Amino acid sequence: MNSNHLSKIQVTTHALIGKIRKYFAISTFYRVFFSPTHISLVVLSRVLYCVLKVQEHSGNAAHVRAIRRLKHLMLRETAHWFGAALDDDRIVGGYECPKNSVPYQVSLFAGYNYCGGILLSDEWVLSAAHCKSKSDVEVRLGEHDIWEPENTEQHIMSAEFIHHPDYNPRTQDSDIMLIRLSRTATLNSFVRPVALPSKCASAGSRCLVSGWGNIRPNKLQCLDIPVLSDDTCFNSYPFQITDNMICAGFLEGGKDSCQGDSGGPLVCDGELQGVVSWGKGCALKNKPGVYTKVCNYVSWIKTTMASG
């Protein structure tokens, strides 16, 4: 790699960082909505990072040092601006999940992790309806570090998206969909379905929510949160909560799922009780996360899977 090539990469890096800074001076209000600009910047920043990572291994010693400085600059600047503007796009206040401890966790991948999902069988994945794509996406199973090969992964293309017929994109009611895989997954200790609920979760149930977020971190994050009462949920979001939604989290704020976790699992006592759906900001006081109430959809899920 010659000096002119390195200079062009440096100019491109700084130009993209400037564009990201300018865009994310405007904050995002609801975690469920994404603009095309947001998505394109996410993809561009990750693509450029990957280019820099490849170039790091192909130059002389001086160029390698320069590339590494650019790579760290890219990570530092994009992490700061994505996080500050979006109240972070990943689980807030959580911890790194023990490796492969959430074998039902799925990543919906389109150049980056744009939504989560939940493995229900060797052929079916559950997610949020607002995560539906107009084109096929890569469904990633058995992942822990989303950007590093670990010999546990299975990457399978989607074959069909089936959102619930009552899904309302304005209110996010019935925000749930099934994804049929293009081929069956191999079930093992790294890739294993979660059980559907035998009954609805009661207030106070302790649950686990997990996800990667859109931008960072690379490794799967976990958070232990309680299910809140219906009254608390309704009072947190007056006239916005339906009977098909539950709230989970802490009213004092500081811990919550977020944008990039949409479609991911809320599991209580080994059963899937919620799908990450929406909320105001992330981890804000008196604004807990809102989840699709899976126990209301067990019949639809089973019927759809059986007829598929």
From TrEMBL:
GO function terms (MF aspect): serine-type endopeptidase activity
Listed EC numbers: 3.4.21.4
First-listed, main subcellular location of the protein, grouped into a coarse class: secreted
InterPro entries: Peptidase_S1_PA, Peptidase_S1_PA_chymotrypsin, Peptidase_S1A, Serine_Proteases_S1, Trypsin_dom, TRYPSIN_HIS, TRYPSIN_SER
Keywords recorded for this protein, A-Z: Disulfide bond, Hydrolase, Protease, Secreted, Serine protease, Zymogen
Catalytic activity entry: Preferential cleavage: Arg-|-Xaa, Lys-|-Xaa
Pfam families associated with the record: Trypsin
A GO-annotated cellular component: extracellular space
GO biological process, one term: proteolysis
CDD domains xrefs: Tryp_SPc
Domain Peptidase S1: 91-306
Localisation: Secreted, Extracellular space
Principal EC category: hydrolase
UniProt key word Cell membrane: no
PANTHER family registered for this protein in UniProt: RIKEN CDNA 2210010C04 GENE, TRYPSIN-RELATED
Protein name, UniProt field: trypsin
Organism of this sequence: Nothobranchius furzeri (Turquoise killifish)
Gene: LOC107374124
